[in-house]
Amino acid sequence: MTYNEFRTEAQRKLRDCTDVENPDFEISTIICHICGIGKARLLAIRGEEIPEKFVSPMLEAIERRVQHEPLQYIIGEWEFFGLRMFCGQGCLIPRPETELLVEKAIELIPKGGHFVDLCTGSGCISVAILNNRKDVTGTAVDISASALEYAKKNAQYHKVEKRLEIVNMPLEKYLPITVPDCIISNPPYVKTEDVDAFPPVMKFEPRIAFDGGHDGLEFYKTIAKRYSSRFLKEGGFLLLEAGYDTVREVEAILKYRKMQTEVLEDMFGVERVCIGKKVVSE
Questions:
Q1: Phi, psi at residue 181, to the nearest 5°?
Q2: Which of 63, 108, 152, 165 holds its CA 20 to 30 A away from the CA of 32?
Q3: What pTM was computed for the model?
Q4: For domain 90-278, which architecture applies?
Q5: Structural domain boundaries in the chain
Q6: E strands within the chain?
Q7: What is the spatial distance between Cα 35 and Cα 193, in angstroms, rounded to a whole number?
Q8: For 76-115, how does the pLDDT look when each residue is reduced to its tens digit (9 = 90+)?
């Protein structure tokens, strides 16, 4: 089987898979990942025979995609903030809209500061911050041990593990040893009824990474109540990703805690991040 013949067969199999928006991209990504080649090299050898050892893994990958398994799980990694991040079953797939949290954290964390990343999942937020701010330290917290295995792997791969403490604990029980300058979180924020209606591809990701309760605000209420005063330095920040339909409600929760707030739009022009600043006591 040549690379072109495999591509034709894969396109036929993926034709009726509704969550595959760009078959050519996904097929090329699978080929390059399994064969260990770049996209330019693939173009140059597209008429050649595929080495036998790669044929079965490539066909298996396409079958997994036909069953709606996310491409990111199939190849075991994805790009986030320009960095390679490992991911797989048991953790949320890194998404580009979350990069706004990283941008603001890099900007706002003071020199030599410390941050806490609640509901860290794959650790992509923490690792990206530490990769760009060599002077800061962080703590990544999550209830899921399986997700934290990816966080550890990502921290080690990017050589930031010595500056990142990883804690397996529910956020409502976690007590910071070092009071942070910044608390960051991309918590579960989808309303329960909306999670129930997810398309098949999203049902591969852990439900606990999405389900924010009946109103999608359960985790924000806990974070604001528990961390906005006692466990945050004077003048410190909460940086919270939120759903497009709840970000203003998240802002109201932070205002109730006497925080100065700001709402930011993501790369798609959607209100996505709510910032809460702890007002310095006079």
A1: -80, -20
A2: 152
A3: 0.94
A4: 3-Layer(aba) Sandwich (3.40)
A5: 3-67, 90-278
A6: 77-80, 83-86, 114-118, 137-142, 164-168, 182-185, 237-241, 259-265, 271-278
A7: 41
A8: 999 999 999 999 999 999 999 999 999 999 999 999 999 9
